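Inverse folding, one chain.
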């Protein structure tokens, strides 16, 4: 079975912080090492499938944002989690699309919702929101009801006025 300690034995230059995720192997790596670690996990240890990747706002002063990659080895049926963190002032991490093409849309979603930039991504643009939308709605400091006037909302003349979110602050 794979362990991050085994990876460290084979690659002593790597540094990581182990994380307890209920029995699954998980570790946080510096963003400078993420691409090399991902390639080794795929090529040397058989983690050929990236199941998903997600962004997370930890709402901490240091390393506010975190990206978690959920990886699977089909031969051993083992799952591991590869994590990386970045600051709000420099929300950049290395894209892993060159290792797992399936990371493409997951990274774009994390960019669109949290504002995490993935350096080296082949198509780093918004997925759900307009390109000129300047906010990131899954950040914990984003207002629950959105930013009034930031994006035009649909309105129907028969709509119940109690649910008219377009005019909620007036």
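Residues assigned per position:
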């Amino acid at each position: 079975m794979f362990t991050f300690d085994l990876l460290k034995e084979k690659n002593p230059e790597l540094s990581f912080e182990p994380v307890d995720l209920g029995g699954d192997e998980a570790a946080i790596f510096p963003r400078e090492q993420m691409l090399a670690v991902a390639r080794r996990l795929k090529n040397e240890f058989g983690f050929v499938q990236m199941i998903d990747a997600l962004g997370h706002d930890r709402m901490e002063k240091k390393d506010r944002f975190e990206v978690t990659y959920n990886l699977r080895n089909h031969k051993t049926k083992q799952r591991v989690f590869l994590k990386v963190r970045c600051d709000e002032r420099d929300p950049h991490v290395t894209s892993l699309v060159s290792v797992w093409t399936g990371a493409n849309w997951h990274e774009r979603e994390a960019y669109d919702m949290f504002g995490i930039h993935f350096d080296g991504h082949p198509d780093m643009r918004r997925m759900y929101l307009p390109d000129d939308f300047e906010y990131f709605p899954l950040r914990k400091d984003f207002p629950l009801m959105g930013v009034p006037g930031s994006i035009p909302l649909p309105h129907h003349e028969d709509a119940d006025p109690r649910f008219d979110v377009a005019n909620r602050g007036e």
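The CA atoms of residues 108 and 124 lie 6 Å apart. The chain has a mean pLDDT of 92.
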